[in-house]
Each structure stands twice: as C-alpha cells, then as structure tokens.
Amino acid sequence: MAYVCAGGHLNGFCKLHGFSYTGMLEFIHADSSRSEMYARARQERADLLADEIVDIADEECTVVEVEDGVTTVGISTALVNRNKLRVDARKWVASKLKPRVYGDKLELSGEIGTPTKLSDDQLLERLQRFGVNLPGIVPKAEGAQ
Question: Would the pTM of this model clear 0.90, i.e. be above it?
C-alpha cells in the first residue's frame, strides 16, 4: 500500500514484482481490512497528485539559447503545453480517486426553468395543454382576498 500512497498505481506495482493484476485485486479484496487499506491508499494518492499539480505549475518553462554569442531567454511553448497536460491528467485522476474533495462541484438550487410568475389563468391553461383538467378550481379575481 505504501507504493500506492507514494504515487504509484497497482498495475505498476504488479509489473515491478511480477504479480498478476487480477490476482492482486483478488488478494486485496479477499480481506476487508486489506481492501479498506487499499482504498485509503488510493485517497492518499489523490492528495499527493494535488501536491504535484502545484509543483508542476511552479516549474520554470523558460529556455535559454545561445547563438553566435547572443543569449536569448524565452518561454517554451512545448514545456508549457507538456505541463498543462501533466496537470490535467493529475486533476482528472485525483477527481476520480477522491471525488468529494477534487471532483467537480454541482450547484443545486430549487429553481427550475419556468417563467418567474404565472397568473392562475395562465397556469390552468398550461395544465390543460398537458391534459390536466381541474374544473373544481376557480381562480380568484385579482385584488380579492
């Protein structure tokens, strides 16, 4: 489990030690405490990936070129794109390993896409279009209480 906590993945561990991936999964899930340890290790790996994202974002992407005694310093577009890919991959994996912390947040509200206010007559007319007939309901006249 330390291998996974340190940023490795189970498939890499199995290849390194010559184990069958499916056999290792069966071994892990055969015991609930091992299975729980593996789940925790994967979550800790998500935290490590998040830390790596910050390190990657802070990396220098400048290149220094010397040509005919002239030194030019600039930003390497290739390095920037490579770092963006590395960050995006880690963000995606972290969001799957620990979705409550690193997953996309869904904002839910009680509003639905209907007009803000419908009069009683408009509401009854709309209900009738859907085949709902409410003959016992008579809208109050406006201003009446």
Answer: no
